[in-house]
Every structure is written in structure tokens, then in C-alpha cells.
Amino acid sequence: MSPAAPAERQAAITGIGQSQVGRRLGRTDLDLTLDACLDAIADAGLTRDDIDGLATYPGGGLGTGGFAGPGTPEVQDALRLKLNWHDGGSEGPGQMRAVIAACFAIAAGAARHVLVYRTVTESTAQGEGGRQGIGGSGGGSGGVPRFGGFLQWSLPFGAVSAVNWIALVGQRRVHEFGLTREQLAHVALNGRRNAALNPKAIYREPMTLDDYLAARMISSPLCLFDCDAPCDGSTALVVSHADYAPDAPHPACHVNAVGTALRGRPSWDQFDDMTSMAARDAAASMWERTELGPTDVDIAQLYDGFSVLPLVWLEALGFCGRGESGPFVDGGSRIALDGELPLNTAGGQLSAGRLHGFGLLHEACVQLRGEGGERQVPGRHEVAAVANGGGPIAGTMLLTRGSG
Amino acid sequence: MNAVLASIPRVYANGPAIRLLPRLDPDNEFFWTAGRDGVLRFLRCRSCRQFIHPPVPRCPECLSDDLAPEAVSGRATVHSFTVNHQQWIPGSDPYVIGLVSIDEQPDVRLMTNLVDCEPDDSLVGSPVEVVFEQSDNVFLPLFRPASTRPEGRP
Does residue B24 sit within a domain? Predict the structure, then answer.
């Protein structure tokens, strides 16, 4: 690593909060967001007058219905925050960009306590018409919109959803590594087992391998249970200067290193290695910024918008060799709560709900703080790796448990 | 070989029931209309000879702006594929989305629909050739199993 400690070491997550999580809650995104934010501020032992920074991903108005959540101006105004720094946007190292930007803002002295949130109301938004592809589901001749940018290269061929693009990653892994549906199933089954111990999870009823194999195909090799569960919910964190950590009411989760690199071509179709894509670069850059290594990690919270993505992350982060993640998860024992690398301990997005990366980050903090209750990882829980994103979008964070 | 696609009996659809189409601009128009004469074309740098995709105003390798569309063989290799079953676009039968690498420069890939093929695991790595489907003023390059390989090709 570089001689000076990386800037992100000056930051720590001192407060976490989460709204009600569920399907078709019928509440507005701002309503859920304020619940999560006030929860996180109180958890950090602060009041809103202490908050001088605000960040979100992706910011207001972007994407399909219910995807973006409220932008920072709405939340700032609703809480009458007086901010020294504020930031929202969709480009960068995935959903993690908002948290990483907060760390850097703190290290730069631009803010001391940054409230970071991510809100989705995709379940309510999709309640009427089922899950949408990007670019919508309707249209006909005359008045049909046309598409530029990356979408022009995928939409004409009916590759209208991230599941289609990720399925191409999955099938390439079938070809190169012999990935099987049974191996994919163990990611989903692990999530469902853990979700049974998470009162907020969307799907808590037991699922068997037969249930998985009988599910309808969405985009081969990915079936329904390979896709995460749209939900409504908001997650918030308070990222503080690390010198506040001793005064925080709960053990702080120190940011040890972040992974932000993107060295391959930034698209779903042209990236050099389709089996890893940006996860390879983000993970590599994180390990370049720390003296810790994969064997130091006690808990992994790896983005599972689709079941194949944790497999990509397991390899990218060095928990197993390239192409070895299928056998690594096979049978499920290694990634179980009492396994050598507990994975997605709250159920992940596949079963707990698609809180879009922030649910995984929240759960990493819960586990490091030892507050997991029935699903608390037994034994050592001092270092957690969190990875967000898939395809050409990736960001990572290594968190360590502080004393307190 | 690059005939406009005829109606062929098949198990899988050639694509979604409705084609969402690209918005043509000065950079991409040559690509999306190349099928008018049945020939696939990519932008190529006259200086360093790299094929450039997606088309951009300067060569990303050598930064030359001396670029021109150039015909390619239309032959490619399947890098990956997926059979889409979800009704994103109502009325669609299952169709095969492919990702193919062009023979002339395999790091140039296209998302496409694979037609007249059996989408099993052996499809990845197999040779395919372009066939165009016209939709409005756009000629979509689709790919079907290659009839024969030219001399000297694996």
C-alpha cells in the first residue's frame, strides 16, 4: 500500500438506521427516508444540528419508477439541515459512491458528520404493472421513443433489463468454469435461510433446492429465484470523522479501505473479461489500499441483485480463485452463518429485499456491532467486506469493528 | 450471404415482439443502416487500423480523427447468450440474446439476437454470420449459425 494511510481511514460509520421494509407499503419515498435518517442520527448519538453533510445514490428522478428515492434537496429541506457539503449522483463506484464520497469529504475537511441514505419504492411503483425493463414495456409504431448511448446497443435486441445483461455473464461462466444451476441455487438458498432470521425480510418461508429448480426461467441461466425482490424501504448511515468514534454510543465501524477502480471498458458488452467485469478492478484497488487481506475477513456482504454476482465478487475479492466460486458455494456450508465466510447474513437482496446495496452495508454494521440477534455470526466478527454493483458498476468497502 | 432475413420456421422468436430502436446520429448512422446493402460495417482507424466500437469521433487507441466505416466479413463467434422468457415486451415469445465477437477483431462485441439456432451450452464459442432485419429505417444485425468457414479458419 502507499506510504500514507488512505484518506478513508479518517471516516467511520457511527450510526445506522432503516425504515420499515416491505412490499407495496404505499408510503412515499421521502416518508421512508426521513424514518431511516432520523433513526441513523439518533443511533449515532447526534441531533440533526450536528449533520453538516448529506449524500445519496443515485439522486432524485433517475431510472425506472421507485428506483431513485428523493434527492438531497428534498431531504435537506425536510430536515432543515445546514450543510457544508452535499452530493448525489449515479455515476461512480456503484451504489457505494455516496458512502465513499462522504468518506473523502470528511477526510478533506469538508464535513464532519455526513448523513448518507438510499431509498427505493420499487415495489409500490411496480405494483400495477409487474417488473419493468429499462426503457419501459410498451410502445408501438409512431411515438415510440428511440434510444442513444449504451441502450441503443441492447434494447433493439430485447435485452431490456439488467437480468439479460447479467445472464450473459452467467452463461459465460457456464462456458468457462462449468457453473451449474445447483451452484447458483446455493446462493439463493443461503439468502433464504438467513432471511428466516431477519424479521424485516421480504421472503422468509423456507425454500428447497427443488423449489429453486422448479421456478420459472427469466433469462437463462437465471430463474425467478436468481433475481432480487423489489421492495420499499430506506437505509441511512451517519459517516463521521473517526475522531468522533469514541464518543459514539455504539461501536463504530471504521472504514479501512474502499475500492473504486474501473480499468476495463465501462460497458456491459465491451468489458474485456465478461466473467468478472468491474468487480475485478474495484476489489483489486481496495486490497491495494490496505495491509489486510482476504483471509482477515470474517463476514462478506456481497451484492446479490442476481445470484451470479456474489460468485463474481467471491473471486474478485480473492476469497477463492478465478472460476472457483461455484464449487466454493456448492452445498452452502462455507457461506452459512457458521461457515468459514458467512455471506449476506440478513438474507441479501434475493430474500430480504432489494435495498440496492445499502441493505448489505447496514447488515455489515449490524454484524460488526454484534447486534444480529438470531442471525449474529458466532465467533469473530471484526472485519467485514461489502461489495456493491455488477457488470461495469462496482464499489467495495472494508469495515473494521472499533472498540466501545 | 448477407441476405435480409426471410420468414423461417423456428422454435424461438427472432427477437422481441416490438423492436425498440436506436436514435440515429452522425456517429452511428452508418452502423445502423449498413444492412441496406447487406454488409456489416464498423468504424476503423486509418492510422492504427483498430476497429472502433461503439463509433466515436476519435480513435480511442491513437487519438487520430482519420476514421471511416469499413466492411467486415459478417462472421463472428458467440461469446455468450441468454434465452429471455420474461414478458418485458408484451406478446414476445422466448428469444435468444447473443453477445458475439467479430472475427476481424474479437474484442469488438455486439449484443444481438441469435436466430435459427439451438440455444444449448455448446452455442458459446460457435461460429455465426450476420443477417439483417429491417425495422423502420434501421437494419438490425442479427446472427445465425455460420454456413461454412472460410479456408484456413478454425
Answer: no
Q: B97 vs A164: CB contact, 8 Å cut-off?
A: yes
C-alpha to C-alpha distance for A83 and A59, rounded to whole angstroms: 17
A253-275 pLDDT, tens digit each: 999 999 999 999 999 999 999 99
Residue A221 forms part of a structural domain: no
Find the mean pLDDT for residues A33-48: 98
Q: In what order do the strands lie in the sheet with A232-241?
A: A85-88, A53-56, A113-121, A232-241, A11-18, A253-259, A395-401, A383-388, A299-302
B65 within domain boundaries: yes
In a domain, residue B11? The reply is no
pTM above 0.90, yes or no: yes
User: If you average pLDDT over residues A99-128, what whole number do you get?
Assistant: 94
The interface predicted TM-score (ipTM) is 0.93
Banded model confidence at residue A38, pLDDT cuts 50, 70, 90: very high
Structural domain tally of chain A? 1
Q: Which residues touch A321 (CB under 8 Å, ≥6 apart)?
A: A315
On whether the CB atoms of residues A12 and A251 are closer than 8 A, the answer is no
Question: Does residue A291 sit within a domain?
Answer: yes
CB–CB contact B85 A171 (8 Å): no
CB contact under 8 A, A159 and B111: yes
Q: Is residue B18 part of a domain?
A: no
User: Three cell numbers at B53?
Assistant: 466500437
Interface touch B20/A144, C-beta < 8 Å: yes
Of A148, A175, A216, the CB nearest to B85: A216
| CB nearest B23 (choices: A132, A140, A147) | A147
CATH of the domain at A75: 3.40.47.10
Please determine, for residue A141, whether its predicted confidence score (pLDDT) is greater than 60: no
Phi, psi of B84 (to 5 degrees): -85, 125
| Chain position carrying cell 457458521 | A338
Asked if residue A141 is part of any domain, the answer here is no
Check pLDDT > 90 for residue B7.
Answer: no
The total of structural domains in chain B comes to 1
User: Cell digits for A145?
Assistant: 421513443
Check B23 against A146: CB less than 8 A apart.
Answer: yes
Domain enclosing residue B75, as ranges: 29-145
pLDDT at B1: 41
Domain hosting A98: range is 7-127+229-401
A108 in any annotated domain: yes
B68/chain A closest Cα distance in angstroms: 20
